[in-house]
Amino acid sequence: MVTVPNPPWSKTREIIIAVAIPLLVYLVFAVLSTAYLLHMLNEPQLLVQREFYVVTIVLIGLAFILSFIPISLLLSLLLGTYRERIKGDVWTDIKRLGLDKQLIQSARIEQLTPAQVDERNDESIAFKRLSDRIDGIYGRSAYIIPTLLYFMLSVGGWLLVFFPAGIAGAENMYASGLQGYWENIYDAASLISYAFVGAYIWSLADLLRRYWISDLKPQSFSQAIFRLLAGVIVTQVIEVAFLSNPYPSFSPILAFFSGILTFPILEYIWRFVIERLATIYISRENLSFELNRHSITRIPGITMFNADRLREQGIEDFHFLTTVDIVDLLAQVRYPTNSIIDWIDKAMLIRHVEDDQLLSVLRQKMGIQSATDILDTWKNNVEHRTRFAAGVAREYYGIEASKPQIEQIEIRLATIIESIERNPNIRPIARYWVTIED
């Protein structure tokens, strides 16, 4: 029997650490800045510029503190029981799914010689395999480069926002006082600054959401870096292609929202290009239908945020989701297990019932929402399969179905059941729902 780590939930402590770290950094910065200002008091020729230097130091400190917030969230997790909690949660889910044997088999395949055979029990082998996988995903060294790049890029962006003319040129902007300086920032700011603020707000909201569900991984910061860069580039393209100089009054708002909606804009551009190229061979209506038909957002319960997160794992449409490695997905994506299993279950039904009209009948008229639903209905009502098929046929054809039509629907349903049963993920999913009910 393996001892699974089950440390107490310490979210409150993590939040305290997440708040304390940036405050401590800012306190150190404030002490050093105060020492510098006290030194300035001994230089009479600099007294006139004292207020400007105070504002400059405060703004530089603000740029650092805003850039450090996401990293402080990460540090609060790494200093806590982050990985141990994940190991305990995923191991419990794997046991419910009955996938521990899969881990044992994969571990033994790598043990090529008798000397390498682990003498521990099978459960210890499976947990060690899972532990190694999670350590590889959430290893502390993997965070260094993406978090450092994110911090440097964020600091640079905020310095561009606060000092659009550069720190050297900020003194001239401050000639009319603090209020005039803020007005000059607004007038001198480029569209790139507005795009950066929009991209930063969205990326920070995404990182906060991931922090709350303990889903901060190195890829999370890589995704944030890409969003910041892509937001700036997309805005630059829009500026060159569509906006004239001087800019229209709505340009800053447009740039801000292009930073927030960077990925939807890129997806729209991709679809636009594909549609223009593909309409040579296929009508635009049919192409649009095919592009939307396999979208992962067709699965009930998957939002735009969920879809972006799943795409990070290479799950571009619901076909990928039906054949995903469930163990790897549970370890990589820290959404509630019930939600992940439910998404896969529903994706299987959509994939194997290719007829959209039949799918609509099963969902809306017959109450079938997932692959396990149709399996349970079909297998638990062996004597009533014809009656079930007759009900489906009546809703499908919109009239009292004839006997050949009922037989045709029954054959189609039987084929769908067989194809679902061949999916390797259906058994662990069915087992999971049974263990949850028990």
Polypeptide structure, described:
This protein is mainly alpha-helical and 438 residues long. The chain has three domains: 191 residues, no CATH class; 33 residues; 130 residues, no CATH class. Helices cover 74% and strands 0% of the residues. The protein is built from 22 helices and no strands. α2 packs antiparallel against α6 and α4 crosses α5. The protein is flat and about 90 Å long.
Reconstruct the topology from this structure.
Blueprint: H1 11-40, H2 50-78, H3 82-97, H4 100-110, H5 122-137, H6 144-162, H7 166-173, H8 177-188, H9 191-212, H10 218-242, H11 251-260, H12 262-278, H13 284-293, H14 304-312, H15 318-322, H16 326-332, H17 337-352, H18 356-365, H19 371-380, H20 385-397, H21 403-421, H22 426-437
Helix pairs in contact: 1-2, 2-6, 2-9, 3-5, 4-5, 6-9, 6-10, 9-10, 9-11, 10-11, 10-12, 12-13, 20-21
Integer tally of domains: 3
The secondary-structure element order is HHHHHHHHHHHHHHHHHHHHHH
Structural class: mainly alpha
Please, how many helices? Answer: 22
Spatial separation of the terminal alpha carbons:
22 Å
Strand proportion: under 5%
Mean pLDDT: 76
Number of strands: 0
Low-pLDDT parts are: 112-119
Largest sheet: none
Helix content: over 70%
> Which oligomerization state do the chains in this entry correspond to?
single chain
Which outline best applies? Answer: flat
Radius of gyration, rounded?
29 Å
